């Protein structure tokens, strides 16, 4: 890592648990900056006069730690240290046995991994409930400006939605050679966290599935619609396998599933949810496709991941035959959002605003677009420029 730049929103959360008897778990997709966070915490400790001799940092992607293969190796390497950091811990066999023992010894433990296999009862079982997890997302737009030392402009915003927000891009020129880097990351995620881990044999099919997700990631679709797409590609696979492969893709945090809530029947749909990429740059690199014709959906994905980076929980609402793009909740707050490219026609304005008028409460409602000159509200609904919204969330 060439540069370390503070990500205060994460550090301020984690520092509340330093020296507390709880295991700190840092997670999400590869290359979103989990190692940055661990190294920033180490710097924070050193600045608090913690002796560096009390700290060990193990990164399982570094060849010098190849000798640590199982929980016994991990214990022998870490037992003499007070502060223990293990990056990509899922690469160590039965790691949880070691971590539990170290926790009993009152060590201060920080671990990271890049898949969601254990984000359920298994994680609670492995760590006996003594953990707290922190989701690390790609750079939101304000962080992107800070990292790259850029002033906000239309040109820089378009670079953000083209190349995405992976932190390492700060060490590269913002040009199309970035796509090679992003493709390499996607290949690593697919090979290590999906194909190898889940023993996927039909790689050709899986690549076609990723192509479909990349082109339709913001649409509501079902396994049947994917199956029909694949049949046109002369690939036949049953819907159960398709759903299984989509789940593997979610497990690697490559895409995020957003549930749909039927406001009329007060229930969450079990099928036909929406999916968004964790990093829009990886999506664009997968299919070599960044087109102005996709701009509305790209903006939607960017708004989604920026909201998630600020810890908003998000759902899609359906009200009769109308859809609310994002219903966002955090703590005791709530807001409703529609995303459009430009409000350039009466039809677009009516569609985006009309959906929000169907919601009968007093929480904020926004229509977000690329329009530079925002006109006044409509029936209590605010119109906002997307950049102003992202910076001001």
Architecture overview:
The chain has 393 residues and is of the alpha/beta class. It folds into two domains: 8-135, P-loop containing nucleotide triphosphate hydrolases (Rossmann fold); 139-393, no CATH class. Helices cover 40% and strands 18% of the residues. The chain contains 15 helices and 14 strands. A seven-stranded mixed sheet has the order 8-7-10-11-12-13-14, sandwiched between helices. Strands 2-3-4-1-5 form a five-stranded parallel sheet, sandwiched between helices. The protein has a two-stranded antiparallel sheet with strand order 6-9. β3, α4 (95-104) and β4 form a beta-alpha-beta unit. It is globular, with a radius of gyration of 22 Å. The mean pLDDT is 85.
Radius of gyration: 22 Å
Distance between the termini: 29 Å
Total helical elements: 15
Order of helices and strands: HEHEHEHEHEHHHHHHEEEEHHEEEHEEH
| Overall pLDDT confidence | 85
Class by alpha and beta content: alpha/beta
Strand content: 15-25%
Output the strand order for the largest sheet. Answer: 8-7-10-11-12-13-14
Number of strands: 14
In short:
With 393 residues, this protein is of the alpha/beta class. The chain has 15 helices and 14 strands. The strands form three sheets. A seven-stranded mixed β-sheet has the order 8-7-10-11-12-13-14, sandwiched between helices. A five-stranded parallel β-sheet has the order 2-3-4-1-5, sandwiched between helices. Strands 6-9 form a two-stranded antiparallel sheet.
Keywords:
393 residues, alpha/beta, Rossmann fold, 15 helices, 14 strands, 40% helix
